[in-house]
Specification:
It contains nine helices and ten strands. The protein is an alpha+beta fold. The chain has a six-stranded antiparallel beta sheet, with no helix packed on it. α7 runs antiparallel to α8.
Length: about 300
Amino acid sequence: MDTSTHDLPQSRPWSRRLRAALDAPAEWRFLDRAAAPLADALNGLPLGRSRDLLHGVWLGHPLHPALVQLPIGCWVSAELLDSLPGNRRAAGVLIAAGLATAGPAAVAGWADWACLDPPRRRTGLVHAAANTTGVLLFAGSLLARCRHRPLRGRLLGLAGLTAISLGGVLGGQLSYRQAAGPNRAAAVHRLAPAEWIGVGPVEDFPPGEPVRRTVDGLAVVVVHDEEDQWHVLAERCAHLSGPLAEGTLVDGCLRCPWHGSEFRLRDGEVVRGPATAPQPVLQARALSGHLEIRLPDAG
């Protein structure tokens, strides 16, 4: 049977237009006039370790996607109850619960957003605007219900759910098409050498200086510390692929030059976000004046 590409279904025009519309905000440079100073202000807040809590460093992946399930679930349930008789009070309680849980979700989202690059920040800003509109509409819906205006409350609730749904679509665009949240180093263990392979003479790696090397297409960063220990990590930061070889050494950690994530040299664990996934570590040894590396579980 002929399986040439000419027989494959073609992308429909409406689908291409939809994808183009979702891609568009990343190119809206006029948003930078608001996004850049807002990101600087958010990053300048004295949050301390609370910032890592909001990023989800303790969880191992971003916290924001988990938190948004609470208000969305409440509001969808409220709209379903609104369609059935005798559930007006329960719908109002769910809307109020959604408003109460929207705050923590938004705070975590803003913490992540402030550490994005400009194209992703633009999409994130439109995502946040849609969600904020939805929150305000649901707040208006609750107020209308409290004032015994059920029809207005239902209409505002439907409008709020529409805005939140648009925000959710843009959130998916940001997370998956623009890859704002995935672990960028997840594939390293499939690409790293299973057997010992040389990366260069030991004199090429001065103590206390991160050095970049490429082995079979995989970029790694080598650190020879002051105690004559060798540390080799994947060179591209798990957060947004920042060049760790251009980073700085801080108290046994390597700090990414882009967004300040810190990884412990000995095991790659995240000491400071916004990265949430550990940085892959390779085993290293100096043999006959040459440095060799491999996966730590090889052999």
